[in-house]
UniProtKB/TrEMBL annotation:
Catalyzes the interconversion of methylthioribose-1-phosphate (MTR-1-P) into methylthioribulose-1-phosphate (MTRu-1-P). NCBIfam families: eIF-2B_rel, PRK05720.1, salvage_mtnA. The active site is at D238 (proton donor). GO terms for molecular function: S-methyl-5-thioribose-1-phosphate isomerase activity. The gene is mtnA. The record marks C158 as: Transition state stabilizer. This is Methylthioribose-1-phosphate isomerase. Belongs to the EIF-2B alpha/beta/delta subunits family. MtnA subfamily. It comes from Thermanaerothrix daxensis.
């Protein structure tokens, strides 16, 4: 386990590490209402596709616990409202909807008149989602190892570590696994404007892990690939379409273009919970647009002239043609992704079912 917890269920409440204050302050907040959870996801107290999925699952448990409903019918209505509220908090990361829908389909399959049983069913499923996430991330790291030379230099974008997940991380989990398995690792950390998940969060996590790195501005990645040795770019994802088109933090597409131009392998670390086979390609992936304020000011200090307009898409979509491989907990997917991704999703689903049966 990392020396910090992104999220934890404790005494019938959800405890979150407030990532907006990192790296200079480690402060935890305790939430008891689903409305607070939706706001914490929206304002990025907690962020990262797998982390917000697990957080939303625990948000559903709080909704059941706080519900004033006296009948199961009323409780189900309350839970549907909570599901809608949570899913609306951030639109791009499919993990959010995936986790909430997974909870609701379990609840709707129950035949009980006992609201308490519904709460315990939801809480147990939230714990399962959290446990699966950590196992998934560790497996992604192991699956990536054969792709990496003994001495390996990465460029990494945004934050995909324990802070973006329940623990261990996805793309940063690959970097961590390489380090833990004796590879000589170095990382160029994209600062990742405008919320600086790289400079604030990834740098903080790499320091804790003892992995050497240098922070670079987002616009420097092409220059670094042209003038220094970079063995691989590794990034996370928020939604992967059937054809492999991948939504990830804004700037990922530019990074993929630069990697392609310099012949540097571009790897996506993708828990199968982030793969959305219902979308044929990336055109239909909803791209969250956040406030102009995030660009024209930082920490409340104006950067741009007063009144300067800004356009702030929080994600972009990298076309599959620029993605060398997609690494999941079920293995490594190569193009054509229309064929390899469904196999990965199906294999991971079978493993989850086996994991459940072994743990019953
Ligand atoms: C483990 S993937 C996390 C994924 O989420 C980040 O976005 P945000 O910080 O806005 O939640 C970024 O896209 C990462 O790749």
């Amino acid at each position: 386990m990392a020396p910090y917890r992104t999220l934890e269920w404790r005494n019938d409440a959800l405890v979150l590490l407030d990532q907006r204050l990192l790296p200079h302050e480690v402060r935890y907040i305790t939430l008891t209402r689903v409305e607070e959870v939706a706001e914490a996801i929206r304002n990025m107290t907690v962020r990262g596709a797998p982390a917000i999925g697990a957080t939303a699952a625990y948000g559903m448990a709080l909704a059941a616990l706080q519900s004033p409903a006296k009948t199961v019918e009323d409780l189900l209505r309350h839970l549907e409202q909570a599901a809608t509220l949570l899913k609306a908090s951030r639109p791009t990361a499919v993990n959010l909807a995936w986790a909430v829908d997974r909870i609701m389909s379990l609840v709707n399959a129950l035949s009980t008149n006992d609201p308490t049983q519904i709460f315990h069913t939801i809480l147990n499923e939230a714990h399962t989602i959290a446990e699966e996430d950590v196992q998934t991330n560790r497996q992604i790291g192991l699956n990536a190892l054969p792709l990496l030379p003994p001495k390996v230099t990465f460029i990494h974008h945004c934050n995909t570590g324990a802070l973006a997940t329940v623990d261990y991380g996805t793309a940063l989990g690959i970097i961590r696994t390489a380090h833990e398995h004796g590879h000589e690792v170095f990382v160029y950390v994209d600062e990742t404007r405008p919320r600086l998940q790289g400079a604030r969060l990834t740098a903080w996590e790499l320091q804790q892990l003892g992995i050497p790195f240098q922070i670079i501005v987002d616009g420097a990645s092409g220059f670094v690939m042209r003038t220094r040795k970079v063995d691989a770019v590794v990034v996370g994802c928020d939604r992967v379409a059937l054809n492999g088109d991948t939504a990830n933090k804004i700037g990922t597409y530019n990074l993929a273009l630069a990697a392609h131009a310099h012949g540097v392998p571009f790897y996506v670390a993708a828990p199968t919970s982030t793969i959305d086979l219902s979308l044929p390609n990336g055109a239909a992936i909803p791209i969250e647009e956040r406030s102009e304020e995030e660009i024209v000011a930082f920490d409340g200090h104006p950067i741009a002239p007063v009144g300067a307009p800004a356009f702030n898409p929080a994600f972009d979509v990298t076309p599959a043609q620029y993605i060398t491989a997609i690494i999941t907990e079920a293995g490594i997917a190569y193009p054509p992704y229309e064929q390899s991704l469904p196999y990965q999703v199906e294999t991971a689903k079978k493993w989850r079912e086996k994991f459940r049966s072994l743990n019953r």
